[in-house]
Design brief:
- It is a single chain.
- By secondary structure, the chain is an all-alpha fold.
- The chain has helices at residues 5-40, 44-63, 69-84.
């Protein structure tokens, strides 16, 4: 347990930021899973909608520094490729 006032503040802010990071990361993963589900079901319109949401969430997570830019590019590319493969 921190004794110094600034260290106490730091504990509080790091908890808040950690909670926010968890929210953004989990919403990104959920969007990716929803997109993959639509692709697996071969539903082109739903896959396109879910792809837009997933890309938006991936970009947001990347901008906040939660994931590396190369991982973001890889995920977006992979999902786009799968979605475009649907007929």
């Amino acid at each position: 347990m921190p004794n110094i006032k600034s260290a106490k503040k730091r504990v509080i802010t790091s908890r808040k930021k950690g909670a926010n990071n968890t929210i953004f990361r989990s919403s990104m993963k959920t969007a990716i899973k929803n997109s993959e589900k639509a692709i697996k079901a071969s539903d082109k319109t739903l896959a396109d909608e879910n792809l837009k949401v997933a890309i938006k969430r991936i970009d947001k997570a990347c901008a906040k520094g939660l994931i590396h830019k190369n991982k973001a590019a890889r995920e977006k590319s992979r999902l786009t490729k799968q979605t475009n493969g649907l007929n």
